[in-house]
Write a structure and sequence with these properties.
This is DNA-binding transcriptional regulator, AcrR family. The protein is mostly helical. It contains nine helices and no strands.
Amino acid sequence: MVGRTRAEKMEETRAKLIGAGRKAFAEKGFAAASMDELTAEVGLTRGALYHNFGDKRGLMAAVVDQIDTTMALKAQAAGKKAGGGWEGLMAEGAAYIEMALQPEVQRIVLLDGPAILGDPAQWPSQNRCLQSTIKTLRRLASNGQIKPVDIEALARLLNGIALNAALWVAASDDARTTLPKAIAAFECLASGALNTVRNSEGNVS
Protein backbone atom coordinates (compact mmCIF):
# COMPACT_ATOMS: atom_id res chain seq x y z
CA MET A 1 0.00 0.00 0.00
CA VAL A 2 1.41 3.37 -1.04
CA GLY A 3 2.02 5.75 1.87
CA ARG A 4 0.18 9.05 2.05
CA THR A 5 1.94 12.20 0.92
CA ARG A 6 2.74 15.04 3.29
CA ALA A 7 0.02 17.14 1.67
CA GLU A 8 -2.55 14.38 2.19
CA LYS A 9 -1.57 14.04 5.86
CA MET A 10 -1.83 17.80 6.34
CA GLU A 11 -5.24 17.86 4.70
CA GLU A 12 -6.41 15.00 6.93
CA THR A 13 -5.20 16.88 10.02
CA ARG A 14 -7.01 20.04 8.91
CA ALA A 15 -10.20 18.05 8.28
CA LYS A 16 -10.01 16.48 11.75
CA LEU A 17 -9.51 19.84 13.41
CA ILE A 18 -12.34 21.47 11.49
CA GLY A 19 -14.64 18.56 12.36
CA ALA A 20 -13.70 18.77 16.03
CA GLY A 21 -14.08 22.54 16.04
CA ARG A 22 -17.44 22.34 14.35
CA LYS A 23 -18.69 19.90 16.98
CA ALA A 24 -17.31 21.91 19.91
CA PHE A 25 -18.52 25.29 18.64
CA ALA A 26 -22.00 23.88 17.96
CA GLU A 27 -22.31 22.25 21.37
CA LYS A 28 -20.58 24.82 23.61
CA GLY A 29 -20.23 28.01 21.59
CA PHE A 30 -16.95 29.64 20.61
CA ALA A 31 -16.13 31.15 24.01
CA ALA A 32 -16.63 27.96 26.01
CA ALA A 33 -14.98 25.57 23.54
CA SER A 34 -11.65 24.28 24.86
CA MET A 35 -8.78 23.97 22.38
CA ASP A 36 -7.16 21.23 24.46
CA GLU A 37 -10.38 19.22 24.58
CA LEU A 38 -11.29 19.53 20.92
CA THR A 39 -7.77 18.62 19.75
CA ALA A 40 -7.46 15.70 22.17
CA GLU A 41 -10.79 14.34 20.94
CA VAL A 42 -9.24 13.67 17.52
CA GLY A 43 -5.82 12.61 18.82
CA LEU A 44 -4.03 15.86 18.01
CA THR A 45 -2.27 18.57 19.98
CA ARG A 46 -2.85 22.29 20.41
CA GLY A 47 0.35 22.74 18.43
CA ALA A 48 -1.34 21.14 15.42
CA LEU A 49 -4.16 23.64 15.69
CA TYR A 50 -1.73 26.56 15.88
CA HIS A 51 0.25 25.23 12.91
CA ASN A 52 -2.81 24.84 10.69
CA PHE A 53 -5.02 27.74 11.75
CA GLY A 54 -2.89 30.12 13.81
CA ASP A 55 -5.30 30.21 16.73
CA LYS A 56 -8.83 29.41 17.87
CA ARG A 57 -10.24 32.28 15.81
CA GLY A 58 -8.54 30.90 12.70
CA LEU A 59 -10.20 27.55 13.31
CA MET A 60 -13.53 29.32 13.75
CA ALA A 61 -13.05 31.03 10.39
CA ALA A 62 -12.42 27.67 8.70
CA VAL A 63 -15.49 26.11 10.33
CA VAL A 64 -17.72 29.05 9.36
CA ASP A 65 -16.40 28.92 5.79
CA GLN A 66 -17.21 25.22 5.55
CA ILE A 67 -20.75 25.56 6.89
CA ASP A 68 -21.59 28.76 5.02
CA THR A 69 -20.28 27.29 1.76
CA THR A 70 -22.50 24.24 2.25
CA MET A 71 -25.45 26.55 2.94
CA ALA A 72 -24.82 28.41 -0.32
CA LEU A 73 -24.60 25.16 -2.29
CA LYS A 74 -27.88 23.94 -0.79
CA ALA A 75 -29.51 27.27 -1.59
CA GLN A 76 -28.27 27.11 -5.17
CA ALA A 77 -29.67 23.58 -5.48
CA ALA A 78 -33.05 24.93 -4.33
CA GLY A 79 -32.77 27.62 -6.99
CA LYS A 80 -32.12 25.09 -9.73
CA LYS A 81 -35.03 22.98 -8.52
CA ALA A 82 -37.25 26.05 -8.82
CA GLY A 83 -36.25 26.39 -12.46
CA GLY A 84 -33.57 29.05 -12.20
CA GLY A 85 -34.06 32.64 -13.32
CA TRP A 86 -35.81 35.06 -10.97
CA GLU A 87 -37.88 32.32 -9.34
CA GLY A 88 -34.67 30.40 -8.71
CA LEU A 89 -33.02 33.43 -7.17
CA MET A 90 -35.95 33.89 -4.81
CA ALA A 91 -35.87 30.19 -3.94
CA GLU A 92 -32.16 30.48 -3.16
CA GLY A 93 -32.77 33.37 -0.80
CA ALA A 94 -35.67 31.65 0.94
CA ALA A 95 -33.67 28.43 1.36
CA TYR A 96 -30.73 30.32 2.85
CA ILE A 97 -32.98 32.14 5.31
CA GLU A 98 -34.73 28.88 6.27
CA MET A 99 -31.41 27.29 7.19
CA ALA A 100 -31.31 29.73 10.11
CA LEU A 101 -33.61 27.25 11.88
CA GLN A 102 -30.78 24.72 12.12
CA PRO A 103 -29.11 24.86 15.58
CA GLU A 104 -25.58 24.46 14.19
CA VAL A 105 -26.10 27.23 11.63
CA GLN A 106 -27.71 29.49 14.23
CA ARG A 107 -24.94 29.22 16.77
CA ILE A 108 -21.83 29.03 14.61
CA VAL A 109 -22.58 31.04 11.47
CA LEU A 110 -25.26 33.52 12.48
CA LEU A 111 -24.63 34.22 16.18
CA ASP A 112 -20.97 33.53 17.03
CA GLY A 113 -19.68 34.05 13.48
CA PRO A 114 -20.29 37.82 13.19
CA ALA A 115 -19.28 38.38 16.83
CA ILE A 116 -15.92 36.64 16.38
CA LEU A 117 -15.10 37.18 12.71
CA GLY A 118 -16.73 40.54 12.05
CA ASP A 119 -18.83 41.70 9.09
CA PRO A 120 -20.13 38.61 7.22
CA ALA A 121 -20.02 40.56 3.95
CA GLN A 122 -16.21 40.28 4.19
CA TRP A 123 -16.16 36.49 4.61
CA PRO A 124 -14.75 34.50 1.65
CA SER A 125 -17.87 32.30 1.56
CA GLN A 126 -20.14 35.35 1.27
CA ASN A 127 -17.99 36.76 -1.53
CA ARG A 128 -18.34 33.50 -3.48
CA CYS A 129 -22.10 33.69 -2.98
CA LEU A 130 -22.04 37.29 -4.20
CA GLN A 131 -20.27 36.29 -7.42
CA SER A 132 -22.92 33.62 -8.05
CA THR A 133 -25.70 36.18 -7.54
CA ILE A 134 -23.99 38.63 -9.89
CA LYS A 135 -23.82 35.93 -12.57
CA THR A 136 -27.55 35.21 -12.24
CA LEU A 137 -28.49 38.88 -12.29
CA ARG A 138 -26.43 39.49 -15.43
CA ARG A 139 -28.42 36.79 -17.21
CA LEU A 140 -31.67 38.34 -16.02
CA ALA A 141 -30.51 41.79 -17.13
CA SER A 142 -29.60 40.51 -20.58
CA ASN A 143 -33.18 39.22 -20.93
CA GLY A 144 -34.65 42.51 -19.74
CA GLN A 145 -36.20 40.91 -16.67
CA ILE A 146 -34.77 43.36 -14.17
CA LYS A 147 -34.47 47.13 -14.08
CA PRO A 148 -31.32 48.80 -15.44
CA VAL A 149 -29.43 49.22 -12.19
CA ASP A 150 -25.82 48.44 -11.29
CA ILE A 151 -25.59 44.65 -11.08
CA GLU A 152 -23.00 44.46 -8.30
CA ALA A 153 -24.92 46.95 -6.18
CA LEU A 154 -28.14 44.98 -6.65
CA ALA A 155 -26.42 41.67 -5.88
CA ARG A 156 -24.86 43.06 -2.70
CA LEU A 157 -28.18 44.42 -1.48
CA LEU A 158 -30.16 41.27 -2.31
CA ASN A 159 -27.60 39.06 -0.57
CA GLY A 160 -27.53 41.49 2.33
CA ILE A 161 -31.29 41.28 2.72
CA ALA A 162 -31.19 37.47 2.77
CA LEU A 163 -28.28 37.40 5.23
CA ASN A 164 -29.86 39.92 7.59
CA ALA A 165 -33.16 38.05 7.41
CA ALA A 166 -31.33 34.88 8.44
CA LEU A 167 -29.58 36.77 11.26
CA TRP A 168 -32.97 38.00 12.48
CA VAL A 169 -34.45 34.49 12.43
CA ALA A 170 -31.46 33.08 14.32
CA ALA A 171 -31.64 35.74 17.04
CA SER A 172 -35.42 35.60 17.37
CA ASP A 173 -37.08 34.20 20.49
CA ASP A 174 -39.46 32.28 18.20
CA ALA A 175 -37.51 31.48 15.03
CA ARG A 176 -40.28 29.46 13.38
CA THR A 177 -42.76 32.31 13.72
CA THR A 178 -40.21 34.83 12.47
CA LEU A 179 -39.16 32.75 9.44
CA PRO A 180 -42.20 33.29 7.16
CA LYS A 181 -42.20 37.01 7.98
CA ALA A 182 -38.53 37.25 7.02
CA ILE A 183 -39.00 35.37 3.75
CA ALA A 184 -42.06 37.41 2.79
CA ALA A 185 -40.21 40.68 3.44
CA PHE A 186 -37.18 39.45 1.46
CA GLU A 187 -39.36 38.61 -1.54
CA CYS A 188 -41.28 41.88 -1.28
CA LEU A 189 -38.14 44.01 -1.25
CA ALA A 190 -36.43 41.96 -3.96
CA SER A 191 -39.43 42.28 -6.29
CA GLY A 192 -38.66 45.97 -6.69
CA ALA A 193 -35.82 44.99 -9.03
CA LEU A 194 -38.18 43.30 -11.50
CA ASN A 195 -39.10 45.04 -14.71
CA THR A 196 -42.79 45.79 -15.16
CA VAL A 197 -44.41 45.20 -18.53
CA ARG A 198 -47.59 46.85 -19.70
CA ASN A 199 -50.04 44.63 -21.53
CA SER A 200 -52.14 45.64 -24.54
CA GLU A 201 -54.76 47.24 -22.26
CA GLY A 202 -52.16 49.43 -20.58
CA ASN A 203 -52.20 47.56 -17.27
CA VAL A 204 -49.01 46.71 -15.42
CA SER A 205 -48.40 42.97 -15.16
